[in-house]
Design goal:
Keywords: Signal. The protein is of the alpha+beta class. Helix content is 24%, strand content 44%. The longest helix has 34 residues, at 155-188.
Amino acid sequence: MARAHGLGLLLALLLPVVGTSLPGTVVRLNKAVLGYVSEIGRAPLQQALKVTVPYFLDWNGGVHQPTRIQISNVRVSQFDLKFIANFGVRMLVAANFTFKVFRIPEPLELTLPVVLLADARVAQGSIRTPVVSISACFPLFNAAPVFEGSAGVAPGLLVPVQKHIKAVLRNKLCLSISNLVQGLNVHLGTLIGLTPVGPESQIHYSMVNAPTVTEDYISLDVGAILFLLGKPIVLPVEATHFVLPAHVGAAGAMATVGLSQDLFDSALLLLQKAGALNLDITGQLKSEDNLLNTSMLGQLIPEVARQFPEPMPVALKVRLGATPVATLHTNNATIRLQPFVEVQAVASNSAFRSLFSFNVVVNLSLQLSMSNVKLQGTTSVLGDIQLTVASSNVGFIDTNQVHPLVDTLFQKPLLDHLNALLGMGIALPKVVNLRYVNSEVFVYEGYVVVSSGLLYQR
């Protein structure tokens, strides 16, 4: 079972790893992945093909004499994989089997070349995960076996031994491949689990419909549902079906993952509902470079100086009532935030008193990157931060005068906070022990594409 599980994980590289209903994601595994699977799968495949051969019963002297036969070595010289349109994957394996026949007085060694052909159908299972099944399997024995140490051995023994070995391989090699696939299906069934996004949020992936198989790739429509405190995040407008165009991303990539606009909208709605985008900006009164105090504000707003003759700490309470808006254009991703910012000061009784508040509009440039299996983001401010006075308890406020100070106090803490959140990243569809490597991120009109290599690590 361990052998089956080992190669089963490797075969998982052939299958897009997936997720649930809308908002949509498309995972496309291209031809380039087949060579990698072939390379890393050779050793586990050799081990899996090393099946047990039962005793050969030789009729000698009127009784059956049991002869032990053991596979001492399997060397896979060719391991080719290709996609079969509207079906799945075809496997061609060429291997040399070395057998040891424990006869008296000296053991006999036999080398037998074998070609194994197997077709695996890829479909959608009842729990919305990929299911692989072997639909055809044929071991072929085209070359004659080579015996070593057969001098003096009667042909009457060699021929029956050869027939016995071939009969065993016909039966057991295909069974071994089938066991690998069963192990793979058990493994793929774990894809329906929840992957953490934050302390109280998760993302759930599963297949939306049957896979699309062409001669160039296997593609799966994957749905993603984000959860906050166990409840799904539902977009106010129904998500549209996402179709990943052909020939996007980097040519020659093993994997192409398309991420819809709806997925980004859901992620931002999750952050807003969780309150993760809210923050309090405070300063230390005794700090020499602290601008967050009533003395500094009093230089711009006379009523603040009158109400607070002594310097008192000031805090900015930033709250996101409106959902952030992500916009995806070719080579350009932006986020628009509209926070409500309340400026408060500590009164003589140590309670905070509201001085004034602003409605703020901030446009941010969004840069996306991959780390392991997570898509991460960093932001920077685009243009000027827009301020309009929402309320005031300190009389008239000249926004032109206050803007530079508020901009200075607000911009860096906001970017630090956002980049820490976006740096946590969101996991793409994945298989255990499989990483995305050498990834490139492309922004298109209304969607994002990640082109990546794959690295399997035990």
